[in-house]
Amino acid sequence: MTGSFFRSRSAWAIAGLIVLFLFPVFFDRFYVYLTAIILLTGLCATSLNFVLGYGGVFQFHHAVFYGVGAYGTALMILKSGLSPWLGFIVGPVVAAVLGLIIGLICIRLSKLYFGMLQISLGSLVWAIVYRWYSFTGGDDGIHGVPLPDIISSPNGAYYFTLIVTSASMFVLYRMLKSPFGSALQGIRDNPVRSEMIGVNVRLQQLLALTIAGFFGGVAGALFVVVDNTVFPDMMFWTLSMELVIMCLLGGWLSYLGPMVGAAVIVLLRTYVSGITVYWALVLGIIMMLVIFFLPNGVLGYLDRFLKKKARAR
Amino acid sequence: MLEVTSLSKSFDGFKAVNNAGLIVKNGETVAVIGPNGAGKTTLFNLITGVIRPDSGKVLFKGEDITGLKPYQVCRRGISRSFQVVNVFPRLSVFENVQVSVLSRQKKTWNLFTPSSRLAIAETDRILENVGLSDVRDNTSTALSHGERKVLEIAIALGGNPEFLILDEPTAGMSPEETSRCIDLIRQLKEKLGITILFCEHDMEIVFSISDRIMVMVRGSTIIEGTCDEVRCCQEVQDAYLGGSDVCLM
Ligand SMILES: Nc1ncnc2c1ncn2[C@@H]1O[C@H](COP(=O)(O)OP(=O)(O)OP(=O)(O)O)[C@@H](O)[C@H]1O
Ligand SMILES: [Mg+2]
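Output (structure tokens, whole complex):
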């Protein structure tokens, strides 16, 4: 009885949450900041994997929704004069609407072409944000976004990020386990067969893209809380590639894979880019190693390893 | 129940289906036979909306379903299995059938109820009926070829169809698997009253389970009739078997 509890997912989730809650007690400000960044980046990668790993959609420019969520939140707080909390809703909603619009334009194309068109449309959004000085601050971005008191301290920002990320991760997980999620995974595996059992494949994918956009936007809004800034590079295509690599590296068929991948990449980016300027090269090498040695990612590998061990026993 | 009239489809000028006609009445089991490349699969693809016809009409229960999308055709009550195994490779056997049941129950927009609480009894009943209960939790890639062909049918049954199209259901099966599969098809026909349209190369099977047969050669309907009529037809002997030593009698 107790054995099965300790092996259950919820037990692990609770243990993980307790550790994360206590984290700021033992570590200083920099590590708290870094963990918050990992959490929100992990949420962003998980929202990408919602359509990539579970939906089979080649969402190659997911960073756009991250960036738009952040800008939506920051601009709403700065320019509307309404309650800052409203910004945290408006940002993700704008990202969701954009996810729906880009989805509507791209959905008719098959896999790789979907990804290509999405990169171009996403780059267009990036260019608009980059150039529109008067509204977005152009390449300077926006600094010092005023936040409600309770989340403006480093620890406040951390706990806000932890709570919102956990809640979002829970909601995304429930969605994947719902009939909607079942149909989505069916579409990933075999779109033709899915149509033949009565699933409206495109409509189903459009809703998934909207949801992915929304939670990408939530991650962006959290970045505003943690870092107090937004800048156009948040939606540059290289970040999108990093997000895809996070999914592959952690394991895109495991729910927590992208979170693990995000942790690895964020840590590497923090420590390696201090030493070398060749971050892109490092990324490329990681990508190659993953493709050759860990085709199912870190968690996929662990999962197999544990199953083999269980069978051997 | 199903009425196909002068249906045609060409691929780059090659007439895969040419002016084909077919009638299936409620409760009947009808076989489509014809040599390789005759256009049987293409005909099924046209009926189920996987590809759109160039011309012709498909009526189902008196309604025009020509050119509808596959999911719309399915929602009218037509399910099909595929000649080449076409299942969901990363899902378990159970999930393969469950997703089909969920789709029929119009639950695919439900975002928050766990699937693990839905459509369980019905999915298990289908697996029981087709004899896949033992491998319920395997992934479909772990199945033998014969089992995968049965899973094909099970997924189609998840749609609780009035009309079932089977594209070479026993192809590649061992003799025991074949006879079990034929029993299954008989059961579907007799116990559940499902109207069945199928194609098959094994003449013994064709003559043993069909009420009527349609012979297709080079995309066109040669003859449509009862087993005896087809057996005796000289045209079929010439066109379909021309020179081969297979004996229809
Ligand atoms: N999508 C396609 N594009 C081009 N040609 C096609 C396509 N689908 C089928 N064909 C051609 O149409 C013809 C009929 O094919 P079809 O698969 O319908 O035959 P079949 O009667 O099912 O044969 P078999 O008994 O081998 O399954 C074949 O010559 C095939 O090459
Ligand atoms: Mg065929």
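Residues 164 and 193 of chain A are 37 Å apart (CA to CA).
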